[in-house]
Amino acid sequence: MFRIARRxxxxxxxxxxxxxxxxxxxxxxxxxxxxxxxxxxxIGGNLRPGNAPVWERILQLAGGKEARIAVFASAAGYPEKxxxxxxxxxxxxxxxxxxVPVAVKLAGSDYxxxxxxxxxxxxxxxxxxxxxxxxxxxxxxxxxxxxxxxNTRVLDALWDMYRRGGVIAGTSAGAAIMSSTMFGRxxxxxxTLKLGVEDGKEITDGLGFIGDDVFIDQHLLVRGRFxxxxxxxxxxGYKLGLGIDEDTAMVVLPNRDVEVIGYKGALVLDLAGASxxxxxxxxxxxxxxxxxxxxxxxxxxxxxxxxEDKADGKLDPSRPYYREPLFTADILGNxxxxxxxxxxxxxxxxxxxxxxLGSPNGVQPDxxxxxxxxxxxxxxGYSSASTDAYSIYKLRLDIRPILIRRxxxxxx
Length: 412
Prior knowledge:
Elements lengths: L1 H21 L16 E5 L8 H10 L6 E5 L6 H14 L3 E5 L10 H5 L2 H8 L3 E4 L4 H8 L8 H12 L2 E5 L1 H4 L4 E3 L5 H7 L7 E3 L8 E4 L8 H11 L3 E5 L3 E5 L4 E6 L2 E6 L4 E2 L6 E10 L3 E3 L5 E2 L20 E3 L7 H10 L5 E6 L10 E17 L6 E14 L9
Parallel strand pairs: 1-5, 2-3, 2-4, 4-5, 8-9, 17-18
Antiparallel strand pairs: 1-10, 6-7, 9-12, 10-11, 11-15, 12-14, 13-14, 14-20, 15-16, 18-19, 19-20
EC number: 3.4.15.6
Keywords: Carboxypeptidase, Hydrolase, Protease, Serine protease, Signal
Function: Exopeptidase that catalyzes the hydrolytic cleavage of multi-L-arginyl-poly-L-aspartic acid (cyanophycin; a water-insoluble reserve polymer) into aspartate-arginine dipeptides.
């Protein structure tokens, strides 16, 4: 078995070495050096092959045409298939991508041995970028860390490449690993609100490329996951969370500027002034912002900058568009939270309310939650001059548990 695994790893190394020979040689950085930090491209999942702005930004940050990008399909159920697709896709945009054979599910391979292979580590170190596929994020950390939690040689090489100025991109599971804490075996969103999170189960250690001060989540708006971020952030003491939607990316630059590019957008959750009560999940004074395509946010200064098409579109509170009460019975629905926030920031209403409740056959069926959004003194919104899109900064959010009386409806 070991001989078979060794042959598989050597075959992939030979292929990667051949691809490296086609590209200009790069210099490896010492792990003890302190060069400028690199960039991150954090993608919310389901990145479409034709989403050129995201693919091209990855290539640009890696150095442009013929940049060598290491592809990790470690999270995938079928790493060979996923890895080949990503190598082909990156190469179609002009890269010299190569597959890294470090994956729990890679047939015939000993991923422990591959992750500590010095030749493979050097290939990764000398690249100018890396891309992590989606799947199960726990497979990434299992493949790249030893059982005692220490780094494998390949993970150390990734850090060296990143510190040298390379780019690390990841989609879905590849986005989850970007923070030092990630979801491991999470429950559904509503169940997470009801039952909370436990270290080593629902949440676990990520790889932490973005640093220890920011929590990351993905598939955010499509799956209503913004709500599950809050229990995790409170449990681990995070004050700032960034959640990115599908087919969309957050580009994090060395100066910690975050730019949103792609189909939809991202939420910024600020818990600096928030307070939580014991018992059923109950939190007040969370600040929530929505970054649309082209918007920027700085992690250090918390400064927001709207996209060019919204720069002159600051909303005037004295001239609201919406003039009726704002309410939704499904705040965790697909993009419902952004729709409600957009209406509130351009409304004459002081607040917007959303609720969520579960099946009468589900866990704690009598427990639901109210999400109350209000405009604060520093809340501000921008609208696009060319599309029906908003950017919303610094709304207040309070979440309270509510009692669901059954049955909640009767037939007439």
